[in-house]
Amino acid sequence: MSEQQTILDEITQSEYKYGFTTSIEMERAPLGLNEDTIRFISEKKGEPAFMLEWRLKAFRHWLKMEEPSWANIHYPPVDYQQISYYAAPKKKPKLSSMDEVDPELRATFEKLGISLDEQKRLSGVAVDAVFDSVSIATTFKEKLKEAGVIFCSVSEAVKEHPDLVRKYLGSVVPYSDNFFAALNAAVFSDGSFVYIPKGVRCPMELSTYFRINAENTGQFERTLIIADEGAYVSYLEGCTAPMRDENQLHAAVVEIVALEQAEVKYSTVQNWYPGDKEGKGGIYNFVTKRGICAGAHSKISWTQVETGSSITWKYPSVILKGDYSHGEFYSVAVTNNRQQADTGTKMLHIGKNTRSRIVSKGISAGRSNNSYRGLVRVSKKAEKARNYTQCDSLLIGDKCGAHTFPYIEVKNKTAQIEHEATTSKIGEDQIFYCNQRGIGPEEAVSLIVNGYAREVLNQLPMEFAVEAQKLLSVSLEGSVG
Amino acid sequence: MLAINNLQAAIGEKEILKGISLTVNPGEVHAIMGPNGSGKSTLSAVLAGRDTYEVTGGQVTFNDKDLLELPPEDRAREGIFLAFQYPVEIPGVSTTNFLRTAVNEKRKYRGEAPLDAVQFLKLMKQKMDLVKIDQSLLSRSLNEGFSGGEKKRNEIFQMAMLEPSLAILDETDSGLDIDALRLVAGGVNQLRSKDNAFIVITHYQRLLEYIVPDFVHVLYNGRFVKSGGKELALELEERGYDWIKEEADALIS
Predict the structure, then answer these.
(1) Record keywords: Nucleotide-binding included (chain B) (predicted)?
(2) What integer pLDDT is reported at residue A46 of this predicted model?
(3) What pLDDT sits at residue A8?
(4) Among A456, A303, A302, A318, residue whose Cα is nearest residue A385
(5) Mean residue pLDDT across chain A
(6) Is A68 on the interface with B (CB under 8 A)?
(7) Which pLDDT score is estimated for A4?
(8) Which is it for the CA torsion A142, A144, A145, A147, positive or negative?
(9) Quick check: B102 and A4 CB within 8 A?
(10) What is the predicted pLDDT for the residue at A481?
(11) What pTM was computed for the model?
């Protein structure tokens, strides 16, 4: 192995910097999952009866389902009876005032760079902070209320806005959709709820920050975003977890509804603990994200930067039901060391003149495995549907794998589908070229990777693009080989 | 400035440089010529720090520092610039962005404050005029989809931006038509000064009509077999390399 390769190896093996734990008294459900667990969760959250019923239906359905095995990922079977399905900080946070947030929790989020103090926040971003199973705080609530925007935890929405919840919860991802979605529906603890009324352009970026802290727990958040006719919102999601030797389960569901002329932009910077160099520990990230362009001329855009998790199983999708609706998926997925990712999207064209665009950039390093899996389906009635897919893989070193599984189903002759795919390697040539200009090996890898991912990073809101760039470099530290 | 003493280098088991000695002073232009496979490009790669080659003997000092001890990026920051024979493509990274990183890394190494965007663009504008390169080329991904001529001009522009004290041009003329060659040579001549030096590696005399050297060295089979003034290049152009090979081979046997 040449020296440049050794350096590459070193660069891609850096430490996870969000791996600390917060010591705080927790209230948690006993290990295991049965109907009593679900009743416990529902009661803890003081939910109305319809929610409990829905959860129980989901649970009974889940019992009949099997864990999917088609993805290109490998892990020992998860024992669903060895997980605690509810964990919450004991001191009950009062949502009415930020000053009443437990100082320990406040400090945790400060440490993660998320200030719950409204004055200190980046201007123009409202945050909902979720710690283990509960939402701790939502900032800028008043200001949003003035615009008619509802931004709160799902638990709160269930109580405060039951009609909206009843109407839309499970409307895009029904509990019967898949194994993990059913599990989530049965036990989901918290998450964010967003409603943008007709014709309103949300005055600031909305963001949720998820933190898993407690041991032996799973995090099952559920997010529901509804953009009424002509509304616009840009929503961001970030997440981290402590470094623990055992694997932790994260099975979230995100549902987006865009009515006529509405636009929703959903960006994720996923940085769950990826496990150590040998693949010990890390989060199993089994997530179902789907949006429906229900009305004509609506638009949903997913942008994801996936650097964390030991396993990622995730396909943010768009159902293009409204005529002239538009779906986008921009993704950078980085895997390093022993990480595995099977991720991509589904674009389901139903309405006429619907358009979709997929740009996927996989980066594999170390001994990791990175798969793109995407489905473009044009149904019979989707006249003149168009899709463009670009699917690139970048390999760093010679021990990693990149795979592409594109599925295209077209039932209407007027459809136009384009698919482009490339695979490339960070070459020693490229690194040496940078070195010769005075750019060190680490900086060189970072430059090359960011250049490769630029098209996707450009989709992120400014402040987050900078964060994501740094994250990409850090995730790949020690990987080049 | 640069002192190479009995430098030997190999790739795997194969010995390529078999004892090279050369002294380069500020203000000088040295041309290194030689038939294919004589070791010209190896010499430039070894000086720049490419680790494909193993240095098996000899010393190289650059401004009183042991060059062979430095990693390639530090050699660059010390003032060595290599214009590549085959410049490498870096998709998604514009020349501007690339150079901003490079210039500031070099400044950091020297304990200077980084240039802010305004200062950097001002410097770029100035150097663009000097080597006559177009803005549109600099906003594109580095070397991606560039023609041969554009790549080489971009190398010269990078050289102008990084202001090296020693620039090594590795067969910069290869693959260039006469107009592109003139432009590239024009850029180099603009940058010549009493404080910097050039090593121009070329197979043909043609480039040396435009970049007139002070010294010409002929490399053959890993050794300098002949050195002289610029007239040596003309002689090679006329007579080819065979007589030199014969002379050298006779000397060895």
Answers:
(1) yes
(2) 87
(3) 45
(4) A318
(5) 83
(6) no
(7) 46
(8) positive
(9) no
(10) 44
(11) 0.81
Question: CA-CA distance, A286 to A318, in Å (whole number)?
Answer: 18
Are A193 and A152 in contact by the 8 Å Cβ rule? The answer is yes
- CB contacts of B49 in chain A (<8 Å) are 435-436
H/E stretch holding A206 reads: strand A205-211
CB-based contacts of A480, cutoff 8 Å, min separation 6: A4, A5, A7, A8, A9, A10, A11, A12, A365, A396, A397, A426, A431, A441, A445
What is the rounded (10 degree) CA torsion for B64, B68, B69, B74?
80
Residue A182 near residue A38 (C-beta atoms within 8 A): no
Strands A340-349 and A311-314: parallel
> Do A24 and A105 touch, CB atoms closer than 8 A?
yes
CB-based contact A433 B90, cutoff 8 Å: yes
What is the rounded CA–CA span in Å between residue B92 and residue B80?
26
Tell me how close the Cα of A205 comes to any Cα of chain B, in angstroms: 27
B interface residues, A as partner, C-beta within 8 Å: 48-52, 71-73, 75-77, 81-82, 84, 87-93, 97-99, 101-102, 105-106, 109, 141, 158, 162
Dihedral, A345, A86, A172, A458 alpha carbons, nearest 10: -40
Q: Which residues contact A317 (CB under 8 A, 6 or more apart)?
A: A289, A290, A291, A345, A346, A347, A348
**Is the Cβ pair A451, B162 closer than 8 Å?**
no
Q: Which of A8, A426, A437, A445 to substitute to test the interface with B, most B CBs within 10 Å?
A: A437
Q: Please state, in angstroms and rounded to a whole number, the distance separating the CA atoms of residues A410 and A380.
A: 8
Q: Record the tokens describing residue A86, joined without a space.
A: 């509810």
Rounded CA-CA distance B16/B53 in Å is: 9
Distance in angstroms (rounded) separating the CA atoms of residues B193 and B198: 10
pLDDT of B85 strictly over 70: yes
Window 413-452 of A, Cβ < 8 Å to B: 424, 427, 429-430, 432-441, 443, 447-448, 450-452
Q: What is the mean pLDDT of residues A283-300?
A: 94
**pLDDT tens digits along A194-225:** 999 999 999 888 888 777 666 666 778 899 99
Instruction: Give per-residue pLDDT as tens, A146-192.
Output: 889 998 888 889 999 999 999 999 999 999 999 999 999 999 988 88
Write out the two tokens for B118. 């305004």
CB-CB under 8 Å, B92 with A454: yes
